[in-house]
Amino acid sequence: MLSQRQRLLITATLVAAPLLWWGLITPEENAPLTGDTPVEQVDFFIRNAEITRWQDDGTVAQLLTTPLMQHYPEQAAMRLETPVTRVPGKAGGHYLLSADQGTLPDSRQQILLAGNVQLHDNPAAGQPSLMTTDQLTLYPPRDYAHTDHPVRMQRGSDTTSAVGMDLFFDQQRIDLLSDVKGEYHVQ
Q1: What is the CATH number of the domain that holds 51?
Q2: What span, in angstroms and rounded, lies between the C-alpha atoms of 90 and 87?
Q3: Over the stretch 108-140, which tens digit does the pLDDT of each residue have?
Q4: Is residue 55 a part of any domain in this protein?
Q5: Phi then psi dihedrals of residue 29, to 5 deg
Q6: Domain count, the chain
Q7: Residue 153: Cβ within 10 Å count
Q8: pTM for the predicted model, two decimal places
Q9: Residue 29 DSSP symbol
């Protein structure tokens, strides 16, 4: 028979081996977070935000709505969740611009839109059109938008595609930059 001391030594060996293995081979994902991985901090947020930019004559120049706006001070920017921007057009129509997400720098000189960007042109007279792209930068003070990404425009059954676009809201003008292709149907 084994003595008390031998049984204690065998038990300690059997328990120590798995404990040592578990402690030495633990994956890093279970390790506590250290100061090496910075966590972005939000200093304020706004739910159901509505931002209006006015023209000098007091009329609405632009209306931006978003269900959630979060400000990140280290980035000096606000992140927008599914932003929608309404820009009044000439002669009573309007443009409606939407995206999955957006970024509004503190300078407020531009809005970066990304993910399923759609621009609906809803003129007072004539046929509406839809423009889609992956990314678009909107410059509110200049009534201007730009992208270097592929663009697709559709008006009725007519389609136009291009790579890159400049859009001048105040002039109601679109400049397509390269690889322009169109398909038009005579009615």
Answers
A1: 2.60.450.10
A2: 10
A3: 889 999 999 999 887 777 788 899 999 999 988
A4: yes
A5: -65, -30
A6: 1
A7: 20
A8: 0.71
A9: G
